[in-house]
Amino acid sequence: MRKGKYILIISSLLIFISIIVYFILNKYIKRKSSQIPTTYLKEKTLIGYDVSDQNYFLSNPEDIVIDEDNNFYIVDSQKNCILKYDSNYKFIKEIGRTGQGPGELLRPGDAYYRNGKLYVMDCGSFRVSIFNKDGKFLNSFPTSPIIVGQQIAVSIDGERIYINEPTPMRKRLFTVYNEKGEILQKFGELELTNSGMNVFSNNEVRFDIDRRDNIYVFYCHKPEVRKYNRNGKLLFKAQLKVLEITERKRILKNDNKADRANYVNDVCYCNNRLFLLTPLVPSLKKENIKFVMYEFDLDFNPIQRYLAKKSADIEWYCDSAVINKKREIYGVNSIGCTFSKYVIER
Length: 346
Description:
- The structure is a single chain.
- By secondary structure, the chain is of the alpha+beta class.
- Helices cover 15% and strands 40% of the residues.
- The chain contains four helices and 26 strands.
- The chain has helices at 2-34, 199-202, 243-254, 282-285, and strands at residues 38-47, 61-66, 72-76, 81-85, 91-95, 97-98, 104-105, 108-114, 117-122, 127-132, 137-142, 152-154, 161-164, 174-177, 183-187, 205-209, 215-219, 224-228, 234-239, 266-270, 273-278, 289-296, 302-309, 320-323, 329-333, 338-344.
- The protein has an eight-stranded mixed sheet, with no helix packed on it. A four-stranded antiparallel sheet has the order 2-3-4-5, with no helix packed on it. Strands 8-9-10-11 form a four-stranded antiparallel sheet, with no helix packed on it.
- Strand 25 and strand 26 form a beta hairpin.
- The N and C termini lie far apart (70 Å).
């Protein structure tokens, strides 16, 4: 009887200590996040409202990339093309057209620019299509039949094309192709459920590559980051602990009916920095914020937080963002169908 009483007391103490530790850690994370400098951004819509000119009207912009001359390439999955604009946002040309033949696109999604070439995930045709920067079609090759979500990045020398392709057939997080479509390598451990279902949704990621061909990976459906080298060796793995990520994790844990939006919308590398675009959480929606972006060093340490305020004429968030060498931030929105620039609020 006395032994059982001691066990009950010890169990109660352990539970009490666990609760105290939880609240201390939670406050520490919030305090550490609040110490990250925050910069407010103001939105300036550049393209999307002129219905009288189809060259300046976006139907469903999914992604945006930029070249060394500060030309912009906007992937429009409804128009089935890439719209190219110069550094002054003047329309240059359409790249691609509707179809499944050479140089044609069907529901294009993610894109990547490297060394004068534009690599496009042609989701409706389950392939990668490659164009030069002037829009000339160069080549295409087939990929796994995943309709949405696939991300693409290209090594510095252009010899390795990395695609997030976590299918039961591929059995790895990434498949590496050359421009001929030959598989060079597969790497990255997959997270599998007991039933083996939802392989892709559990392993969908956003990623980019630095100047040394290291690959920085942010998981969409869990607060985890990884770093691989060019050849697929895992260099680093950790939990992502910034304020918005922590809050979303708590909401999803406590409410099965909560919005299951991703932890991550987009990731890009620029000037030895990583920029992470995160979905909004309820506390920020009340503050009229459009999106949150974190700037990290290459060890995933957060060093700057950006909050973009909604403009008076648009209410939607930002799907994809790009940062040029001048650290200017641009983004597209697939629901509001806009291309915007975000400037520091003075």
